[in-house]
Amino acid sequence: MEDELLLVPGPTPVPAEVSAAGGRPMVNHRGPHFRSLYARVQEGLRYVFQTRSEVLVFPSAGTGMLETAIVNCFSPGDRVLAGVMGAFGQRFAEVAQAFGLTVDAVECAWGRALQPQAIAAALRPEHRGVLLTFNETSTGALLNLADVAAAVRARSDALVLVDAVSGLGGADLRMDEWGCDVVLTASQKALAVPPGLGLCAVGPRAVTACQSASLPRFYWDWRPYLRSAAHGETPYTPAVGLWYALDAALGRLRAEGLDNAFARHRALAATVREGFAAVGLPPLTPDAEASPTVTCLVGQAAPRLVAALQERGIAVAGGMGPLAGKALRVGHMGAVTQDDLRTLLAAARDILGAS
Ligand SMILES: Cc1ncc(COP(=O)(O)O)c(C=O)c1O
Question: What atom of ligand 1 comes closest to residue 63's alpha carbon?
Fold first, then answer.
């Protein structure tokens, strides 16, 4: 078996207990075992999403969740505002464009977080939705979602759609309190579950929107999911093994407590930011906008370091878009430990010849 110290921004290491749960004997997805699993997972997801709404679980990558959000909330010809802080904000905008929506983008420099005032200034009465990235994985910038959502809700009825793929579980996201309508993520990031589940929390205004939205949809349609949810099932075959893994992961997160998990992630981020700055690779984002789950470090040595670390069995990611060849990205979420980061930093110091 090939072991790797997995420090990319997803997939992330999966605790043994979670892997073991995922390997349990299969059960009937139309029977009582799955229905009680459904209820437990739903309760755990509502805790993590900080919502009273239903969290729909699809067999999917995160990108499928971007698509399900768009096709259920909008109709042909609708106009939306996309907040773009990097590659994943661009992707959300591209999904909307692919379905024929008119997309206005409000952007900021890569490495910065969009400011609430910038989004408020770009918002127009005809915008039916605002597409946001909570934690921009290409740059390691965290959006001030509380203030951004408040700025949108104060000025407009536009739906607030949040891609929280690399943030949820590692950074505080209060879906209901902050007035978000759709919050989506995937299993393979801070939840520390193998890839394969997409999670999409659907608030009351989004449920209403999906009844009249007229973009084409079938597999991603929320309506059959919401009907099946009422009796603890999914309309199509669920990825049962991953549901068991998710159940175990949610149990761990609940035992730790959200606030402790957020503090732990902030401490991991601090270790990476300080440790790499000391060897000449400072973080791209200012401290106040730093992601607790992903850090992008910039410096000429980055591509060489990514390759040399891989040779030592340590996987980190390279830069994306304009940062390709100029940056490395470290994922420090889910089950990643301070010990893992000490191993990473010791290897980086060794490779770069720093003491
Ligand atoms: C913020 C964000 N959105 C969307 C995605 C897409 O997820 P996936 O690769 O599972 O489709 C990612 C993946 O890294 C991400 O970080």
Answer: 11
